[in-house]
Amino acid sequence: MSENELTSGDFTEQNEPFALFxxxxxxxxxxxxxxxxxxxxxxxxxxxxxxVRMVLLKGFDSDGFVFYTNFESQKGQEILYHKKAAMCFHWxxxxxxxxxxxxxxxxxxxxxxxxxxxxxRGSRIGAWASKQSRPLEGRFALEKAVAEYTARYxxxxxxxxxxxSGFRIRPLSIEFWHDRQFRLHDRxxxxxxxxxxxxxxxxxxx
Length: 206
Hints:
The chain is 30% helix and 33% strand. The protein is an alpha+beta fold. The protein has a single domain, classed as Electron Transport, Fmn-binding Protein, Chain A (Pnp Oxidase, Chain A, Roll), CATH 2.30.110. The longest helix has 15 residues, at 17-31. The chain is elongated, with a radius of gyration of 19 Å.
C-alpha cells in the first residue's frame, strides 16, 4: 500500500495503525512549523493522580513508540512504577490527532547507547548535569554542574548515564481523529487485548 493510498481519501478504510501513523507523521513533518514529533505524555503517580507533559517521539515501529528520559525524573519514576502510559499527538496544521495508550517496557542498553551517541554534545552533558524533576536552588548550581561535567568529558566520548534511557510504549489502543465540519469528526480506534494480539478496528461517534 502506498503513502498516497494511506493519506488520501477515506483514511477510515485503513486496517493497519502503524502504517497509517507513519503516513500521518510524514505529512506533519512537511506542515508543522515546530517539532512534528512532539507528543503529550500522560502518566499516573503512586497516589493515582495523573501527570502530563510534552516529550519528543524518537522512534516507532510495529513494536511501539519510543522516547528517552532520566529514569529518576517524575515521569521516569511513575512509568517504572506502573509500567503504563498514554500519548496524544495533535497536528493543528492537518486538523488531526492520534491518541494511544498501553504497557511500557525499557529499551535495550544497546538501543539507548546508539541513540545517546546521536545527541548533541551539550545535550549529553546536560543528561549528566541535570537532576531532573528535583528542586534546584538556583540557576548557578545547574551551570556549575554543566561546567564540571564539561571539564570531566572534555576529550573523547561521553558515556550514557546509567539512569538515562528509553521507554517503549506498546499500544493496546490507537485512535485516529480527523476534524470535520460541525464537529462531526472521523474517529477510528484500533484495539487489541495484548501487545502481540491482532487489531480490531472500531468506528467511534465524534
